[in-house]
Design goal:
Length: 331
């Protein structure tokens, strides 16, 4: 099956600095793909190269099998939704959405009718005549999303679209983005630094580090089988430990407070350094004598049946099959 988006050895240099280092990636048709990683990992540069807003130093970008490496943004069949939304303050919600069709020369009646359809798609038909300043942050984002989608792009590119929203709205908009992507059947490529956001949205998550792809896979595979210590630590929810058996990751929700196993089963003994109540769960951090730390995310009822406090001796244990081996050369 031909990929919707394919990157082949793509590199971006800014003078002597390498922002993106020879990455190759194939994104299947009608997928939700999240690019994630720490600041400076190359995810935004990658998105901007796909859009045509950044030149490519080396490599090729193919969209639906067509090489678009040297094409301007308007000729690529992509649309981009920016973090700032960039709505025109003097235009109504309806007119903002219709603007791209106006630039293509579509007649006023036709473009406004089409814009009204997209207002319904993002469930804002009652806000048609409002200016951006009269809309909430979430409503402004929906207008920006409809404006990007009205041009019928083959690929929609989203640059940290949820970062300005409060946690409740962020969850709502995650659901909205996924719904629209499924209904429209087009590929979304979404840059985020939020691990939870990527896990919730993506069909394929691409974890980047220092301009390279550390792992690209469905989110469950990344969480269950991180390719490196970096991925395990960045995704979160894992302990990365060095024991005589090797380096491995074990999920914090599969780790338990336990007596030191008589048979020498997998465990880490030390003292409690932190206890953090999180509502349905309690996070307990234990530090061993060698300085390594591990944590357990315990169900609230389980913790309170036998609680511990900072400074107390404690042992964390887990089942041997829960330990996922990691390469030793992946720091």
């Amino acid at each position: 099956m031909r990929a919707d988006v394919e990157l082949i050895g793509v590199t971006k240099r800014y003078g002597a600095a390498v922002a993106v280092d020879g990455i190759s990636l194939a994104i299947p048709p009608a997928s939700y793909c999240c690019l994630l990683g720490p600041s400076g990992c190359g995810k935004t540069s990658t998105l901007r190269m796909i859009a045509g807003h950044e030149s490519i130093s080396d490599g090729d970008i193919l969209l639906a099998g067509r090489n678009v490496t040297n094409l301007p943004p308007a000729a690529r069949g992509t649309a981009m939704m920016f973090q700032s939304y960039a709505l025109f303050p003097h235009l109504t919600a309806l007119e903002n959405i219709a603007f791209g069709l106006r630039m293509r020369g579509m007649g006023k009646a036709e473009r406004l009718a089409r814009a009204a359809e997209f207002l319904r798609l993002v469930q804002l038909e009652k806000m048609a005549d409002r200016l951006p300043t009269q809309l909430s942050g979430g409503q402004q984002q929906r207008v920006a999303l409809a404006r990007a989608l009205i041009t019928s792009p083959k690929v929609l590119l989203l640059d940290e679209p949820l970062s300005a929203l409060d946690p409740f709205l962020r969850t709502q908009m995650r659901e909205e983005l996924k719904r629209l992507q499924r209904e429209l059947g087009i590929t979304f490529i979404h840059v985020t630094h939020g691990q939870e956001e990527a896990m919730a949205l993506s069909d394929i998550a691409v974890v980047m580090d220092q301009g390279r792809i550390a792992q690209a896979a469905p989110p469950r595979e990344i969480f269950e089988k991180p390719a490196s210590a970096f991925v395990a630590r960045f995704i979160g929810g894992h302990n990365v430990l060095e024991l005589p058996q090797g380096r491995f990751a074990v999920r914090t929700d599969r780790t338990r407070l336990a007596p030191a196993p008589a048979g020498g089963g997998p465990h880490l003994s030390g003292h409690v350094t932190a206890v953090e109540y999180q509502g349905s769960a309690v996070r307990v951090v234990v530090q061993a004598r060698d300085g390594q730390t591990a944590e357990a995310l315990l169900p609230d009822s389980l913790f309170h049946a036998s609680p511990v406090a900072p400074g107390e001796a404690a042992t964390l244990g887990w089942e041997a099959q829960e330990a996922h081996p990691l390469p030793r050369d992946a720091a």
